[in-house]
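RECORD TYPE: protein structure
NAME: SDR family NAD(P)-dependent oxidoreductase
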Amino acid sequence: MIIPGQTAVITAGAHGIGRSVADLLARRGMNVVIADIDGAAAPRAAAEPRAAGGAAVGLACDVRDEADLEQVRLAGSPSTAGPTCS
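PREDICTED:
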């Protein structure tokens, strides 16, 4: 479901299907957190939807690491999604 203004976390979002989903959601008005183990590619993947006026942030994240997951959770929380995803 696409809900403008809400936040979606896309794991493995820097490449392929994950990147396409992140781009689509951002174009449709969602805040997008792109989390990917490829720490260099995640911010690059977030730059495209931001350039098109969307709200996106890219973070390095290994989903096996609780500290990384906490960073993603904080980036996607309602209290930080606006400023973090600008």
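COMMENT: The CA atoms of residues 31 and 55 lie 5 Å apart.
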